[in-house]
Structures are given as structure tokens and as C-alpha cells.
Design brief:
Blueprint lengths: L4 E4 L5 H8 L8 E5 H7 L1 H9 L3 E8 L3 H11 L6 E5 L4 H14 L8 E5 L7 H7 L6 H14 L4 E3 L5 H8 L4 E4 L18 H7 L3 E4 L1 H4 L4 H12 L6
Parallel strand pairs: 1-2, 1-8, 2-3, 3-4, 4-5, 5-6, 6-7, 7-8
Bound molecules: the ligand O=c1ccn([C@@H]2O[C@H](COP(=O)(O)O)[C@@H](O)[C@H]2O)c(=O)[nH]1.
């Protein structure tokens, strides 16, 4: 389904989204609506993007008790996104409840949105995991374990760093999605991301989708940056 490039629309308003998307007119994109945009614009922003022909990943990272997640997902199923997510740290029962909610809320005759689980945020490193969160297993082990749990709970894939994509495929099978943020061109700053991978390397590692925000949204010429992304994903070097 869709292009492998998920464009993170991390903007505070619909107006800014429209301005950013103007150069892409006529090109169906796969876009991501996260907390910043959704909390300002609500479900209407998803409807708007779908009307423009874009596929939508609604990245709200639900993490709560199972009943709350189930009821929230029941509502989100009607918003019209193609992909939604939860935090795997909510556990097996919460992830199962997410799927139950989506199944219950999906209007008949339409596809239920795919649902994936965040393993470890790409801004997390070993030090943070051990010293701040007091999780004493190696980070990569926790990613593999959370992915297996998500798979057993009936989810369609995970959010992880592209570095972990081979492990995800090995543990959960080729069709289990590896959706990978923390993508940067080789000559860019990582900002708050830690587990960072270039577009070319992400493809080599087996990522199904790469999530790209600031490399596009803060580029002087976003269309040119998107073309560079396509070029490098396809194995090309920087021109
Ligand atoms: O582990 C995660 C989960 C989600 N994200 C989201 O992806 C984009 C990345 O933006 P960049 O500007 O390319 O860093 C952003 O919307 C995050 O909320 C993530 O980065 N890591």
C-alpha cells in the first residue's frame, strides 16, 4: 500500500499544512498527523487530507488502560485514517483492546485501519533506558520483545528505528510492518533523535516505511528534499 515515504506534518495549523503541501499538488502522499496538529485541528484535518487524496497515519500513540484504549480506538476508527498506533508498553491486553475497538468502530464495507505499536521511541538510547527508565535489558532486546508482543496481540507492525528492522522481520515475519522514524540525510543534524538512519540505509535494512519530518518540513525547498529522499531510497548518492 502507498508510497514508502510517510511525511510527518508536524505543524500547528491546517493553514501551515496547506502551505507546505502546495508544491506537492496532484501528488498523492502518505502523510502523518501527530499530536501537535490533531490536538489543534481535530478529526477534520484527517478528512481534509483524505479528500486531497493522501493516505493518513494518525500518530497519537495511545497508552492507557485497555478499556479506555478500546473506546478511543472505536471512535478513531471512524475518523478515516489508514494507520493508527499505540505504545507497546501498554501491554498485551491493551493492544488486543485496541484491535477490538478498531474492529467495533470500523464502518461496514470499509477496511479497519492498520494498527502498529511503538517499541522504543527513536529518541531513546541505552543510557536513558537504563538510568532514567530503570529498564535493565539491552534496548534492542526490548524492541524485539515488544514487537513479538504486538504481533501476538494481533497488530500489523511496529514503530522502531530502521536499525532494528532486520530483528523485527526475523522475529515477526516479513509482512509484519517496520515503520521507521529517526530518518536523516547524511549531512543533517539529528536534533532530538538518537537512533538515526539515512534513507538509503533504512531501505537496505528492510524498513517498509520511513517517517520523515523536519528533513522535509524545514527544507528550503521541500519538493526538492522529497525528490532527494526518493533518489537516495532508490540507492542514489547525494547529487
Ligand atoms: O519513535 C518514534 C515515534 C514517532 N516519531 C515521530 O516521527 C516524526 C519524526 O520527525 P523528524 O522531524 O523526522 O524527527 C515525529 O512526528 C515524531 O513524533 C519519532 O520520531 N520516533
Amino acid at each position: 500500500m502507498h508510497t514508502p515515504f510517510i511525511v510527518a506534518l508536524d505543524f500547528p495549523s491546517k493553514q501551515e499544512v496547506e502551505r507546505f503541501l502546495r508544491p506537492f499538488a496532484g501528488t498523492p502522499l502518505f502523510v502523518k498527523v501527530g499530536m501537535e496538529l490533531y490536538y489543534q485541528e481535530g478529526p477534520a484535518i484527517v478528512a481534509f487530507l483524505k479528500e486531497q487524496g493522501h493516505a493518513v497515519f494518525l500518530d497519537l500513540k495511545l497508552h492507557d488502560i485497555p478499556n479506555t484504549v478500546k473506546q478511543a480506538m472505536k471512535g478513531l476508527a471512524r475518523v478515516g485514517a489508514d494507520l493508527v498506533n499505540v505504545h507497546a508498553a501498554g501491554g498485551r491486553r491493551m493492544m488486543e483492546a485496541a484491535i477490538e475497538g478498531l474492529d467495533a468502530g470500523t464502518p461496514s464495507g470499509t477496511m479497519r485501519p492498520r494498527c502498529i505499536a511503538v517499541t522504543q521511541l527513536t529518541s531513546t538510547d541505552e543510557r536513558m533506558l537504563h538510568e532514567e527508565l530503570w529498564i535493565d535489558r539491552p534496548l534492542v532486546e526490548t524492541v524485539g520483545h515488544y514487537a513479538a508482543l504486538a504481533n501476538e496481540s494481533g497488530l500489523d507492525g511496529v514503530v522502531c528505528s530502521a536499525n532494528e528492522a532486520p530483528l523485527i522481520k526475523e522475529r515477526c515475519g516479513a509482512s509484519f510492518l517496520a515503520v521507521t522514524p529517526g530518518i536523516r540525510f547524511a549531512d543533517e543534524a539529528a536534533h532530538d533523535q538518537v537512533r538515526v538512519v539515512t534513507p538509503k540505509r533504512a531501505r537496505e535494512l528492510g524498513a517498509d516505511y520511513i517517517v520523515v519530518g523536519r528533513s522535509l518540513t524545514r527544507a528550503a525547498d521541500p519538493l526538492k528534499a522529497y525528490e532527494r529522499l526518493q533518489h537516495e531510497w532508490n540507492g542514489g548518492e547525494k547529487e
